[in-house]
Amino acid sequence: MLKSMLSTAANKADLFDGMRAASASALMLLVGCVLQAPDFSWAAIGAFWTSLATARDTPRSRLASMLSFSVLSTLAGGISTWAASLGTASGALAVLCFVTLAGLTRIWGSKPYQVAILAATACVVMVDHPLSANGGSSVYLFLYLVGCLFATALSMAVWRLRPAAPVRHATSLRQAAGDTLRQSLHTLREHASLSSDGVHFALRLGIATTTAYLLVHMLQLPYGYWATMAVLLILQPSMSSTWPRSIERAVGTAIGTLIAVVVSGLAQTPLAIALAVFPLIALTMALRPVGYSVFVAFLTPSFVLVTDFAMPAIDYSYVWARLENNLLGSAIAIAATLTLWPLTDKLRK
């Protein structure tokens, strides 16, 4: 059975994606080592998120998705950072607006939603780093954009798309065109219903994420943005999809926490952290098709190490804080699914 599971995982794994994301993120950390600039951890985060936002069908859509994410996430993060400097209420309003707008994009399918929800993720992380009088926030925001653009350039110049499948026979092409037309008509008929459900889902997502933001600030929880991120990434249109995703995230986070404890104990210098991040991010991206819990299991130590790169710590406070906040975010996502328009389950996944 174990052999079968490993074989299935190996067949689904995408080493190309893993190397693409890992090279962009790790190189940003290595530059930070050379320049002795810990804030380059933000460049590594930008590079990784940009790799996640990449569309894979054509070079043009790939470039469009990466550039769109770079611009949208930097703008959303910058505005959220400024809003948070005015107070918690202003920060909450920024979270509500950006997350709700991101949720609305699910009406148009998974590709725009992928870019928008990752941009909203940048928003909920950066809102906990309000603008400071000495301009420090603008520096990390600039480095974040540098990381996004570096990942885009590296992806387009080095990690190119695999060759497209051979052109099919003309009859197959005509049949495919007919199928596409029928699918388009079917999509138009469903659009009105999807729009209504899409608005409900977007509002649910915005309200739940904002609730998490306000709660972690009221309780003064350290690294509370991990709870808001958990809500943002777990909450789905229906309970039948939200519940298993929350379980998968909890299991993945618990396993990732153990990995982070071990790796953090071994990687105590910025250079060691940068080197350790490469295989972890490579596995995070490569194993993403295998399952969400596996993805989170390697994502957790990756981000713990990137955080340690900026603020080295001997204890494991980051690790345990991430676990606790993820569990809190899961609980909020489940509660929102049960109480806010609970019958919304027609959206495309």
From TrEMBL:
Record keyword Heme present: no
Membrane topology: Multi-pass membrane protein
TM region(s), chain numbering: 79-103, 139-159, 212-235, 255-278, 290-314, 326-344
Localisation: Cell membrane
UniProt family annotation: Belongs to the YccS/YhfK family.
InterPro entries: Memb_transporter_dom (IPR049453)
Name by which UniProt lists this protein: Integral membrane bound transporter domain-containing protein
GO CC, any one term: plasma membrane
The species this protein was found in: Duganella guangzhouensis
Chain coiled-coil ranges: none
Keyword Chaperone attributed: no
Domain Integral membrane bound transporter: 212-335
Keywords per UniProt: Cell membrane, Membrane, Transmembrane, Transmembrane helix
Domain of life: Bacteria
Pfam families: FUSC_2
